[in-house]
Design goal:
Layout: H1 11-21, H2 26-51, H3 61-66
Length: about 80
């Protein structure tokens, strides 16, 4: 959905955005710039969430990944089940 709008944008910024984007139309350059802006902000938010997690340095993802995923008949070195 497109929305017609009038914006006061710096001529220099718009010319640089058009040149760097490789787009012919100003609207296409502005749309691309907005998409990239949104993507960067969303990525930053994800990084902030990752920083909020408590990581367990003892966690071994390889052990967790292999639990119950491989049948004993396909393992090179089958291990007996521990009680």
């Amino acid at each position: 959905m497109h929305m017609a709008t009038n914006l006061a944008i710096s001529r220099d910024l718009l010319e640089r955005a058009v040149a760097l984007s490789g787009k012919r139309a100003k609207a296409a350059a502005v749309t691309l710039a907005l998409q990239e802006f949104i993507a960067r902000r969303e990525q930053r938010r994800l990084l902030e969430l990752f920083d909020a997690l408590d990581w367990d340095p003892e966690f071994d993802h390889k052990v967790e990944r292999s639990r119950g995923c491989v049948s004993s008949s396909t393992r090179a070195d089958p291990q007996p089940a521990t009680p």
